[in-house]
Amino acid sequence: MLLHEFRPGRLIAGLAALAAAAAYLGDAAGAWETAWFVALPVVFGGLLAAAFATFVHYRSRRRRSASAASSEKVAAPASTSGSQAIR
């Protein structure tokens, strides 16, 4: 049983935040030196990648649902655009 749908944008954003945290954790542990500004491009780049992944996922799900609706063998509703107008 699937508990929730997969959301790739949230996964990418979380991984970007974890990468920034790991960079500063390594700096705090003395393993390497991390500049103070490293988190900005990592987090913002991750957010940009997450937005792109969310857009691609949304478009693919919308296209898949539209093709499934067009292949049904029953008559089409009065309007499939969300409008409640009657023909």
Describe the structure.
- This protein has a domain at 37-65.
- It contains 2 helices and no strands.
- The chain has helices spanning 8-29, 39-70.
- Helix 1 runs antiparallel to helix 2.
- The longest helix has 32 residues, at 39-70.
- The protein is elongated and about 65 Å long.
- The chain starts with 7 loop residues before the first helix and ends in a 17-residue tail after the last helix.
- The model has no long low-confidence stretch (mean pLDDT 86).
Q: Which key terms come to mind for this protein?
A:
87 residues; mainly alpha; 2 helices; elongated
Helix content: 55-70%
| Biggest β-sheet description | none
How many strands? 0
Choose one word for the global shape.
Answer: elongated
What is Rg? 22 Å
- SSE-based structural type: mainly alpha
* Share of residues in strands: under 5%
Please work out how many helical segments DSSP would assign.
2
N-end to C-end Cα span: 40 Å
Mean pLDDT: 86
Which stretches of 5+ consecutive residues score pLDDT under 50? none
Order of helices and strands: HH
